[in-house]
Amino acid sequence: MYQSIIFYFCLTATTILGISVPSYFHKVDIAKIGTQEHLFPFLAGSAPYFDYPTNYSIPRDLPDDCQLTQVQVLARHGERYPTNSTGRKIINTWYKLNNYTRDFEGSLSFLNSYEFFLKDKFDQFEALTTQENSISPLNPYLGEYDAKRHALEFSQRYESILRNVTDLTIFTSNSKRVYDTAKYFSEALGDGFNISLAVLDEDPSSGANTLTPGYSCPKWNENDGILEGFNTDYLTDIVKRLGAENKGLNLTTTDAYNLFNWCAFEISLSGYSEMCSIFKIEELIQFSYYNDVANYYSDFVGNPLIKAIGSVLFNSSMTLLSNNETTAGQNIWISFTHDTDMLNYMAVLGIMDNNKNLTVNSVPFQDHIFHKGWLVPTGARLYTEKFQCSKKTNDSSVTTAEYVRHVLNDVVIPIESCHSGPGFSCELHEFLKYGRDRIRDADFYKNCGVRDVSNTTELTFYWDYKNKPYNSSLILQ
Ligand SMILES: *[C@@H]1O[C@H](CO)[C@@H](O)[C@H](O)[C@H]1NC(C)=O
Ligand SMILES: *[C@@H]1O[C@H](CO)[C@@H](O)[C@H](O)[C@H]1NC(C)=O
Ligand SMILES: *[C@@H]1O[C@H](CO)[C@@H](O)[C@H](O)[C@H]1NC(C)=O
Ligand SMILES: *[C@@H]1O[C@H](CO)[C@@H](O)[C@H](O)[C@H]1NC(C)=O
Ligand SMILES: *[C@@H]1O[C@H](CO)[C@@H](O)[C@H](O)[C@H]1NC(C)=O
Ligand SMILES: *[C@@H]1O[C@H](CO)[C@@H](O)[C@H](O)[C@H]1NC(C)=O
Ligand SMILES: *[C@@H]1O[C@H](CO)[C@@H](O)[C@H](O)[C@H]1NC(C)=O
Ligand SMILES: *[C@@H]1O[C@H](CO)[C@@H](O)[C@H](O)[C@H]1NC(C)=O
Ligand SMILES: *[C@@H]1O[C@H](CO)[C@@H](O)[C@H](O)[C@H]1NC(C)=O
Ligand SMILES: *[C@@H]1O[C@H](CO)[C@@H](O)[C@H](O)[C@H]1NC(C)=O
Ligand SMILES: *[C@@H]1O[C@H](CO)[C@@H](O)[C@H](O)[C@H]1NC(C)=O
Asked: Ligand 7, atom 12: nearest CA belongs to which residue?
């Protein structure tokens, strides 16, 4: 995997003369790039993409005697700059460190000869990382490369159904980094067919007809009161340790928290971060768990409204699977959106939910299966595969049936209560029944109070995009 990244870079490096040379490159020890991948699972989805770390060993290839008939992709944008809000917080902590007048001692001593990784890059906040806006010419983790690599892997794996395609529409929200990810993905998919992008508005007025139904749900709230009980001693420990090493350095627990994001985004932007070395493993576990709890109660099953929000995209997936005459003929559906929308969807799909709420006072190690950063790292991708399998019966006639299964970040994740099909898949009609049960009382429009922001009660873009222009202007969000 690492080799292929480097190879890919060499290919693209030959074109670099054609583009303007970035004004600023961050200093990084090239030999260290790629040595921090073991930290990605702790960094709450802000570090670069990684495959799902728990593998149930179900082969990624389809079982024998099965043929793919449809694939749906729901994917997150790739590696990016911090958001404006997180970026400003990192900068505030940087100012504090930069105002310190003595030499740094201990784990922060690397700062004595260090150039801040976000220097001169404030105008790039929110953006996907690309060859053009990169701070490090050798960074293999650019969002642009991730999207292109994903497309190449996708086209190899699904060559059998891509072969027959002449026109393909790819769906994206109108967030610029999401759109850019879709664009790079499309470019790398090849020139065997015409690709168009349908750009769906994130504005609440889109109602249900959007890839980001969370924004159309006025009743949603972050549910963050729950976090008040979270033990933040791990942050105090960091403050004390760095303070003991550096007399007069007055960091706060907020600064300590910001340093984790500094670590994550610096790896993402330049390939390596010295800042990551200041943490003990226990602290990384606490930081990671804090983010799991926060997201569990804001965008996953711990928030009572998530079922309503997630039902919008999940229901459309079921409609596409049932392949009625409106959508028949098209068997590839690719959509790009944000991490929260994917989490909402997975909450309804029913994976990584063991019916045990995450606790705030301690880490429930053995009951802890919801890891936000593992489900939706940057570049996350959830595939829904539909396939037809044939089976010889006793009288040697052949019967066929259709099945569904889900692949998250390249690992097959079976539905806990429905996986008796080949390769632990779920028989199509059983899956549709299972799915309809899960959204029976979801009622997005009513439960979310959508009426206050929009009159659009249903998602229609997957079946009316040919007749309706979905071309919203891009936004930085
Ligand atoms: C998980 O294991 C299966 C079976 O060995 C393999 O096909 C698949 O590629 C593995 N996925 C990852 C991400 O390693
Ligand atoms: C970014 O955040 C700063 C400070 O919070 C604010 O002044 C500025 O308007 C924000 N920029 C954008 C583009 O949202
Ligand atoms: C010191 O901190 C202030 C804000 O508190 C900031 O404006 C200033 O740029 C900082 N100085 C340095 C050298 O970073
Ligand atoms: C592709 O087209 C060929 C010829 O029309 C057909 O036999 C084959 O079943 C198609 N494959 C798929 C996956 O639709
Ligand atoms: C793409 O669209 C153009 C114009 O509609 C058409 O001429 C061309 O044949 C299409 N290419 C493919 C590969 O289908
Ligand atoms: C840190 O706090 C101490 C005591 O409040 C104060 O004397 C010192 O100036 C502060 N140092 C910095 C760098 O702000
Ligand atoms: C889990 O937490 C949610 C939200 O706080 C609550 O509605 C639900 O009843 C809890 N479930 C269990 C099994 O404790
Ligand atoms: C699911 O989608 C179908 C087809 O678009 C629609 O008729 C139905 O109302 C939707 N159901 C829910 C619960 O959203
Ligand atoms: C097919 O699905 C579309 C979208 O949900 C719906 O409008 C249409 O009525 C369905 N057609 C049939 C025949 O079920
Ligand atoms: C919904 O439709 C009604 C009646 O046409 C209209 O008065 C109202 O402003 C619309 N609401 C929104 C949020 O668009
Ligand atoms: C989208 O397309 C419509 C119809 O062609 C056009 O009127 C509208 O201005 C376009 N909107 C944007 C943002 O390009």
From this structure: 357
Provide Rg for the chain, Cα atoms. 23
Bridge pairing between strands 167-173 and 194-200? parallel
Ligand 1 binding pocket includes 84 (Cβ within 6 Å): no
Closest C-alpha residue for ligand 9 atom 14: 324
Amino acid present at 457:
T
Strand partners, 398: 392
User: What string of pLDDT tens digits covers the 477 residues of the chain?
Assistant: 333 333 333 333 334 444 444 456 778 889 999 999 999 999 999 999 999 999 999 999 999 999 999 999 999 999 999 999 999 999 999 999 999 999 999 999 999 999 999 998 999 999 999 999 999 989 999 999 999 999 999 999 999 999 888 999 999 999 999 999 999 999 999 888 899 999 999 999 999 999 999 999 999 999 889 999 999 999 999 999 999 999 999 999 999 999 999 999 999 999 999 999 999 999 999 999 999 999 999 999 999 999 999 999 999 999 999 986 667 778 999 999 999 999 999 999 999 999 999 999 999 999 999 999 999 999 999 999 999 999 888 888 899 999 999 999 999 999 999 999 999 999 999 999 999 999 999 999 999 999 999 999 999 999 999 999 999 999 998
DSSP bridge partners of 169: 196
Nearest listed ligand to the Cα of residue 307? 8
Question: Tokens in use for 288?
Answer: 């990671």
Q: Give pTM, 2 decimals.
A: 0.92
Evaluate: CB of 302 within 6 angstroms of ligand 7: yes
Number of C-alpha atoms within 13 angstroms, CB side, residue 119? Answer: 12
- Pocket probe for ligand 4: among 157, 164, 193, 402, the residue whose CB has the most ligand atoms within 8 Å is 164
Nearest Cα residue to atom 3 of ligand 7: 302
**Count of residues making up the chain:** 477
Location of structure tokens 């967030």: 175
Any idea what the Cα angle at residue 413 is, between residues 391 and 385, rounded to 5°?
55
Q: Is the CB of 164 under 6 A from ligand 5?
A: no
